[in-house]
Each structure stands twice: as structure tokens, then as C-alpha cells.
Amino acid sequence: MARDMLSLGASTRAVHSGERQRRLGDAVTVPVYQTSTYAFESTQQLIDFKEGRIDKGEYGRYGNPTVRKAEQKIAELDHAEDAVLWASGMCAMTSLLLTILQTGQHMIITADSYRRTQQFCSGMLRRFGIDVSVVPPGDPEAIEAAVCPNTRLILTESPTNPFLYVIDLEKLVEIAKRHRLRTVIDSTLAAPYNQNPLDFGIDLVMHSATKYLAGHNDLLAGVVVGKAGMIDALRESQGILGGITDPNSAYLLLRGLKSFALRMVQHNANGAALAAFLESHPKVRRVYYPGLKSHPSHAVAKAQMRGFGGLVSFELDATMAETGAFLDALELPYMAPSLGGVESLVEQPAIVSYYEMAPEERQKIGISDSLVRYAAGIEDTDDLLADIEQALKVLG
Ligand SMILES: *Cc1c(COP(=O)(O)O)cnc(C)c1O
Question: Are 305 and 211 in the same domain?
Fold first, then answer.
């Protein structure tokens, strides 16, 4: 598109970014380019391509036009120069860390982070001689205190999962600049609608596109956005590591993205309404939602986010079994891991994510037996509230 997309609203960008182009048969939508390879007309064209005089397809692991369109759309939604899509959020995160880090270096990660990311850092990266410090979430001072001479990278989520701690991005960037560190944020729970960490000077932002970006619980993908040079380096490493998104998933992602801003408005409204309702209910011991004044990150979240998303975590005044009975009594959400799709999902983290862990270990990281993680979809708010209200009655 000729005009500056960034001057347009989030919904207009969600619909049009990356897509306006004359196509075969004047089709409005981007087709699925179901191809693994791209032909060259002549040896001369191949030489021109190798010497960078022309830009075209070469081989499926190095790019695909449908995937490229989805990357451009997400880049514009998150105020980025460029984006690179991966087969899943974890593929994006692990490939990013493998690309940036080297043996002998040190990185800092926050405790309340996606468990698989923590396992990759504290397990696999350590095997390759990369030192990892784990610090409490949402606490810039704790991060700064962990900086060593060989520290290279700070990785945090914001908001974190499942307690939704938000880090002060300005402070984080200031610390990183002072110590010459790279900053990476997993911004999955905010999505580009609620927060744009690059605007604060964060180097790289990763999203599990499986969640709010795709939004329909029907595909897996991951994305990293940032400055063009860094994204080029990640694209190079994707050619080696191979974790590409297939064109069909990229098409579904593009389709899902067109309603992204609209969906986020409803996710935000549902999350806020559920949090307020739960906080006022006598059977609920504690609610974690950054939009609530009672959340320790509320002030920071309010200052740097546009909305607080659909994810609400809460502890019931109940045992593990009673909590299970509450979940079983809910009629609208599916009992399933994940978040960010149109269907509401609910889970009991002590069972779905931490079942293998000894109860004392779970307690230590704050995962209580009565913790519930409710990922509000885009259903009508009143229906979700009425459903929760009736299910809470099983607690007597
Ligand atoms: C789901 C999720 C991931 C992993 O993404 P996948 O697409 O499932 O591989 C990483 N970080 C956060 C915060 C997530 O919610």
C-alpha cells in the first residue's frame, strides 16, 4: 500500500497490511502458494539472483509468498521493520536463542515464564555451556542484580504466565543499555494490540502466533519481530534450522488476523469483566489480572498497555478435587491448554502443566492446587459470567 500503514488504526492494519497487491484474476485474498520450490528461467537469472540483483523465490525453506504476507502483516501490527514466522512459538523461541547465544555466555530469564522456555534455557542451553540465571518476574532490580560480566541477554515475558506480572519496559531497556545487553520479550499474552514492546526499545519480540494472532485454536505458529538486520539473521538461521511455517497455516493465520483487533476488544472486555466478578465472589481467594488495582503490576500495566487481555488466573477457596469439580461444572469453556482463541478455555495448572511435579515443588513456584487459569474467548460477557456463577455453586 502506498500510504504509511502505521498512521492507520489497528483494525485497518489487521485487514490490509501486507496484502494490497494486484493478483492473478484480481483475487482479493492471498492464495495458498502450495509449493516447495521455485523455478529459474535461465542460468543468467540464477546468477542475477545469487548476486542479489533480483528478489524471487528459491526453495521452500527459504521463504514462501503466503508466509511472507503473514510476516508483513504481523510486522506492521507490532510496529516492527520486519518479522519472521516459525513452525510454533517454541520453535521461534528456541531458534532465536540458538542464533543469538554462544557457549560461555550468560542469560537472565524470569521465573514465572512459559515452562517449556524455562526447560529449554535451564536444561538444553546449559548443556551447551550457556549459563542461565532465573529471577523473580516483573522486577527490574532483580534482573539488574543478576547481571554478570558475560551476560548477553535478558529474556522475559510480559505479562507472564499464569500470574500476569508486567515488567516496566522502559526500566528494562535502561538496564539493558547500561550493561550492553540484548532484550527479548515473549509478548504472547499481550499480543500486538495491547502492547508494542519495540516502541520502548526492546530488541526482539516473540509471539506464539498460535494464540491471539491466529485466534481460532486451529493452527500452530510462532513469530519474532524486530529490526530488519536482526530478522535477516534469524531468517538465515531458519534456513539452517528448518522450522518454517507451512503455507496452509500461514493462510489460516492471515485469515484469522483480519479480525485480530475486533477480537482483542472482546477478549479485553471479557477478561476485565471476569476478573472484576471473580474478585467480588466469596469463594474466590485471589484473582491475578493486571487490569485489577489489586495486582502488583497494575500501575506499570496501565501505563504501558492498551488493554489487559482475556487471561485471568484465580485461586479458589477449595481443595484440588473441589477445584476440579468447579472446572467440570463449567459449561462454556473447553477444558484445554492454550489461550487466545475465540473459544474460551480453562485449566487447572497444577494438573495440566505441573502434574508430574511434587506438590511441595509446585507450591514453591506458586502453583496452588486451587489455581485456575481461565482464557476468555470472544463469547458474550454475560454468558461467560453466568456460567462461572453457576459453576461456583458446586463449592457450596
Ligand atoms: C503457547 C506459548 C508459547 C509456546 O508457543 P507454541 O506456539 O505452543 O509453541 C510460548 N510462550 C507463551 C507465553 C505461550 O503462551
Answer: no
